[in-house]
Amino acid sequence: MTCEPPGRDPEPAARAAGGPAGTGLPPVVELARAAYAYADGPPVLSGVTFAVHPGRSLALLGRNGSGKTTLLRLLSGGLRPSAGELRLDGRPVGGGRAELTRLRTSVQLVLQDPDDQLFAASVGQDVSFGPLNLGLPPEEVDRRVAESLAALEIAALRDRPTHLLSYGQRKRAAIAGAVAMRPRVLLLDEPTAGLDPRGRERLLAVLDRLRATGTTVVMATHDVDLALRWADEAALLTPRGPRTGPAAGMLADPALLSAAGLGPTWGHAAARVLRAHGLLDGGVTGPSFPRTPEELLAWAGGAGGGDTGARHHGDAGDTAGTRGAGDTGGAEDSGDAAGGAEGTGGAGDARGSGGA
Q1: Residue 297, number of CB atoms within 10 A of its CB
Q2: pLDDT (tens digit per residue) in 227-261
Q3: Where are the domains of the chain?
Q4: How far apart are CA 30 and CA 53, in angstroms?
Q5: How many CA atoms lie within 13 A of 199 on its CB side?
Q6: 196 pLDDT exceeds 60?
Q7: Which residues are paired to 219 by β-bridges?
Q8: What does CATH list as the number for 15-264?
Q9: Which of 71, 84, 135, 281 could form a disulfide with 33 if both were Cys (CB 3.0 to 4.6 A apart)?
Q10: What is the DSSP letter of 2?
Q11: In this predicted model, what pLDDT tens digit does every residue of 212-231 receive, in sequence order?
Q12: How far apart are CA 195 and CA 313, in angstroms?
């Protein structure tokens, strides 16, 4: 993937590599003109500038093999760019132990396959790995483990062996290990892959609550419908580089979707049909069109009244099927693991002690 040289932007709805326009907030973590190639392979990323600004939910979209996982691993320090640099709070991140520890206390990556990340005998031991590596006192480690397990609704699984967990439980345990590091930015590689609908809804509700407590969440996915309903911002990986902007507008651009190897969203297609029949006013970039079948049914039941833009899974008490902190995350979370994306790595990639 290469970035186009400066010049007139033929895609005014998209911005190269930036964060939310008009926020005035500097990025937490960013890549500047970064490049990376795996051994004996062509460049995966070249000349890429990409920034993650605080307080947003960002969907990173692209076809399989487009470099989503590589980009996340560069942002988390699991890979080092062969050119360009990684910055945290505007300062370059070096390759030394102290620099990587500084990065990993702010940015955490959860890999697509939880089995690439879970390695301890029990859930509690696995979640405690990162805080222990920071040298925190035992009482602080215990507090972080308890709070992280509660946040992911798996407190009752603390002493359960990790090999006895369902797939959905392993997903949430892996995320809990990252959350225990108290990151400002949480990077998730295809977090809903392999989950059934109920498990996916529960996970999205958890992510909404994490964001409500101040965590910026970046989700890599090729699911445009998920991105439309969940994300504030969308970054599409095209051959010209990442194109970033408000999710509803970015995902309404057929040319941009095609360049990223993606198809149209269900919500935008439904909105076009409704408008063609005179049943919906306005455009498709605002909040007032149904983004999911559930929202369409609610809209139809209310004769189109009310704001359908609220995310279906957004509140703890909604129909997402969430349960209390003592929930053991039953079999409804299980699913077949999806195949790994490019550049998978082990647990040290995300929660390591910061070694070079």
Answers
A1: 11
A2: 999 999 999 999 888 999 999 999 999 999 999 99
A3: 15-264
A4: 9
A5: 23
A6: yes
A7: 59, 188
A8: 3.40.50.300
A9: 84
A10: B
A11: 989 999 999 989 999 999 99
A12: 15
